[in-house]
Amino acid sequence: MRSVMLTIAYEGTDYAGWQVQPGQRTIQAELERALTSITGDEIRVVGSGRTDAGVHALGQVAGFRTESALAAAVFQRALNAELPRDIAVLDAAEATADFHPIRDCTSKRYRYVIHDEPVRDVFSRRFVWHFRHRLNESAMAEGARHLLGRHDFSSFETTGAERPDSIRTISDLSVQRGAADQADRIMIEVEADGFLYNMVRAITGTLVEVGGGAQGPDWVQQVLRATDRCQAGQTAPPEGLFLLRVDYPSTVYLDSE
Predict the structure, then answer these.
(1) Is 129 helix (H, G, I), strand (E, B) or coil?
(2) CATH code for the domain of 235
(3) Residues near 167 by beta carbon (within 8 Å), at least 6 away in sequence
(4) CB within 8 A of 115, min separation 6: which ones?
(5) Catalytic residue chosen out of the listed positions 14, 41, 52, 193
(6) In contact, 72 and 3? CB cutoff 8 Å
(7) 120 found inside a domain
(8) Centroid of chain to Cα 46
(9) In this predicted model, what pLDDT tens digit does every residue of 1-59 receive, in sequence order?
(10) Which of 58, 82, 112, 167 is a plausible cystine mate for 188, CB 3.0–4.6 Å?
(11) How far apart are CA 183 and CA 187, in angstroms?
């Protein structure tokens, strides 16, 4: 039995998230349907994590096990022929037999995009959180620094997912305004060894409180120490969130030696 690793991009607007749900259109279900069509076997696809309804991915990683002799590159071409146009397999690679997309993941990186102009951009409405007034990205970046490192992120976790604990390590958290024709966009990027349910969206909602002037940058530290979701900002809407990348050690690749 072989293990194949897929790197996938998708627009999540028209999906009820990653995970298979009865009567709902999901990314996982589309991949499994396509693989069944290609191989004739029922194949279960495991993702690195569950993105919510409306959330997008530029580099989601998933894996599946198969007895098919098709090469990984053939799987990529066949899947892209079978999948709807809002899902694309960017890469397919042979992985070690015991590869597991969740267990073997070492870090993930997300991006959240905010559009802060008085008039909404109708062409990007599926990919940004629109604000009618300018936010102070410098204050947001100052507040974000309080979240770097290893902490209990209970204040930024929406209930609904069972986790052994709420301790995670954020290795990078940046807040930057785009240049030139992207000057009306603020990009928040977060990299960590793992994420809690709605963690990035809760962090974004909290930083927006700072950017809008309702709270000062040091308030973010108070929220973190409170370990109470009620003390933080709102959960930002899903459409501005992108899973950028999922990292693994080289040892999970079959040809890593």
Answers:
(1) strand
(2) 3.30.70.660
(3) 150, 151, 152, 153
(4) 121, 124, 128, 129, 130, 131, 184, 185
(5) 52
(6) no
(7) yes
(8) 15
(9) 899 999 999 999 999 999 999 999 999 999 999 999 999 999 999 999 999 999 999 99
(10) 112
(11) 10
